[in-house]
Amino acid sequence: MPAFTLRLVKEEDDAQLARIFRAVLPEYGACGPGFAIADPEIDFISKAYTRPRHAYFTVSLNGEVKGGAGVGPLEGGPPDVCELRKMYFLPELRGLGAGRAALEACLGAAVLMGFSRCYLETLERMHKARALYEKNGFKPLEKPLGNTGHFGCDRWYIRDLAAA
């Protein structure tokens, strides 16, 4: 099985991550306003996630960035709630355990940054991602939290970080 590596994002990762987001999101119909693909930060992830209480982890396969995941404060939410953000992987990285590893890195960082709960937004049709979240302690919510601008998402989850 090929080995993947995780590390914090660097400025030189920005263009590749933007390509990944623009390749993966259309697979799930997550195009246009209301989805992460419309967020201005997708072109400069390194700048967006080097601010206080933010972290973004790239996942590389054979030395090439193939995906990543980040965490930061939930926009418009309580100060103790972070949001799992922009967790997307190219097909060749899927099924290798990279999602779980990236999720664990993000949750660990969130605890170190003082968050007590982690929120995320996704789509009903992202079945494997939702299964990963549920297997790792995320509980479904009936409606969104905060003000992320991702009104196209139709599934919301939260997890208590005491167990992270």
In short:
This protein is an alpha+beta fold and 164 residues long. The protein is 24% helix and 28% strand.
Q: Which features would summarize this protein structure in a list?
A:
4 helices, Aminopeptidase, globular, alpha+beta, 164 residues
Give a verbal description of the structure:
- This protein is of the alpha+beta class and 164 residues long.
- The protein has helices at 14-24, 45-48, 98-112, 127-135; strands spanning 4-8, 55-61, 64-73, 81-89, 117-122, 139-141, 155-160.
- It has a single domain (4-163), classed as 3-Layer(aba) Sandwich (Aminopeptidase), CATH 3.40.630.
- It is 24% helix and 28% strand.
- The chain has a seven-stranded mixed sheet with strand order 1-2-3-4-5-7-6, with helices on both faces.
- Strand 2 and strand 3 (64-73) form a beta hairpin.
- The longest helix is centred in the middle third of the chain and has 15 residues, at 98-112.
- The chain is globular.
CATH topology: Aminopeptidase
CATH class equals Alpha Beta
Amino-to-carboxy terminus distance: 27 Å
How many runs of DSSP E, i.e. beta strands?
7
How many helices?
4
Oligomer type? single chain
Widest β-sheet, arrangement of strands? 1-2-3-4-5-7-6
Radius of gyration: 14 Å
What would CATH call the homologous superfamily? Answer: Gcn5-related N-acetyltransferase (GNAT)
User: Major beta sheet, specifics?
Assistant: 7 strands, mixed
